[in-house]
Design a protein that fits this description.
With 381 residues, this protein is of the alpha/beta class. The protein has ten helices and 16 strands.
């Protein structure tokens, strides 16, 4: 934890699962046998939470821990993670929240950490009715295979959570489904490039699930690419979705955000600061509705400014910044040699190429492949 804090990373602490000695039953989940039953005694659970919070307060300081978030349990509205009722969860939440606040009124606690945006208004009503502390709403969401409903779900959750801050403590490019490659290939990068900019103003914090394929819930996979959730694989090789976040980070350094727009399956988002304009393009649809390649033609009209005839473009698609496709072209070696790892890391990297103004059409023309992403950078005069 000390290392993470030293580089500016703070935790969202999930209070779960149930210690075996406190559990009311034997039902477990995951490879590490996490107990998903309610406690035999909610007061004892509260005592445990209070002791943990007090330990963090003493170790890291009240001011520091006040910047963290504490969410209660994981997806209690899903029977695979909670055998109790909704009322049981609310009792667990009450015991947890009051214990956290006993340590420090400034510590932030929330929930319901629900699957599929569930129980948001129910928890708010319970806390208001019973005078239980609630500082934020947390929930999880994943897009479907056929319906592009992720953003409408965020709008729904934003409305339900108001006036509380909304934290998406899990989201990703679909669930981890066998036979697909949605987390390994450029579907993931197209999802990130399209959805994250459009979530601005709807969500206060978004936490992509997960950073690494070193992921133990179902037992650690030792294969280079097996559609695990991570942004990097077990060898630390960045996947296309990682590079999409890298492009977004580049854009975040700029100031004014230009309203996003969409034409067909192509989404555009821009940021502007002084004489530098960046435009992020993504060609996205759901996994079962793969979009066709699209020719994107755009011009820039800003009052009092002209656009340089030479810009740059960075791409993520089937042929660019795509370690997964490069692995396939290698013949899918498993395990990887160090030389192969080094080659795939190089192949994953973003390449900045020149982009020239089309004097005939007076515009920029870009062919955007299926599930392709492109970041265009232009200088204004």
């Amino acid at each position: 934890m000390i290392f993470f804090l030293s580089i500016g990373i703070r935790p969202i602490v999930e209070l779960g699962f149930m210690p075996k000695a406190m559990a009311s039953g034997n039902k477990t989940t995951f490879a590490y046998q996490a107990n998903i039953t309610p406690p035999k005694n909610f007061s004892d659970w509260g005592t445990l939470v209070e002791a943990a919070a007090l330990n963090w307060k003493n170790r890291y300081g009240e001011s520091e821990v006040s910047k963290w978030y504490f969410e209660v349990w994981n997806e209690p509205n899903y029977p695979g993670f909670w055998t109790g009722t909704q009322s049981d969860y609310f009792e667990l939440y009450k015991a947890s929240a009051t214990a956290i606040k006993r340590v420090s009124p400034s510590f932030r606690v929330g929930g319901p950490a629900s699957a599929g945006l569930g129980w948001i208004s129910d928890l708010i009503t319970f806390c208001k009715t019973n005078n239980v502390p609630l500082d934020f709403i947390s929930t999880h969401s994943y897009p479907g295979a056929d319906t592009d409903d992720f953003l409408s779900g965020l709008q729904y959750a934003h409305t339900q959570a108001s006036p509380f801050p909304l934290i998406m403590t899990e989201y990703s490019a679909m669930l981890m489904i066998g036979g697909l490659s949605n987390h390994d290939n450029n579907f993931g990068s197209a999802f990130v490039a399209r959805t994250v900019p459009r979530a601005l103003g709807l969500v206060d914090v978004m936490s992509y699930w997960t950073f690494s394929d070193v992921f133990e819930e179902s037992g650690l996979s030792l294969h280079p690419f097996s559609n695990v959730y991570g942004l990097v694989n077990i060898n630390g090789i960045p996947k296309p979705a990682y590079r999409a976040f890298q492009l977004l980070h580049t854009m975040s350094q700029l100031g004014v955000q230009v309203n996003p727009s969409q034409s067909g399956k192509v989404f555009a988002f821009a940021t502007l600061l002084g004489t530098k304009l960046q435009i992020l393009l993504s060609n996205y649809d759901t996994i079962n509705n793969q979009p066709s390649s699209a020719m994107v033609n755009f011009s820039v009209n800003i009052e009092g400014k002209s656009v340089s005839s030479q810009g740059t473009i960075a791409r993520i698609d089937g042929d660019n910044a795509n370690s997964f496709n490069s692995w396939w072209k290698m013949g899918k070696p498993d395990p990887l040699s160090q030389q192969q790892i080094d080659k795939l890391i190089v192949d994953s990297q973003l390449v900045i190429s020149p982009l020239t103004f089309n004097d005939t059409t007076k515009s920029f023309d870009i062919l955007l492949p299926s599930w392709g992403v492109a970041l265009v950078t232009l200088d204004l005069n």
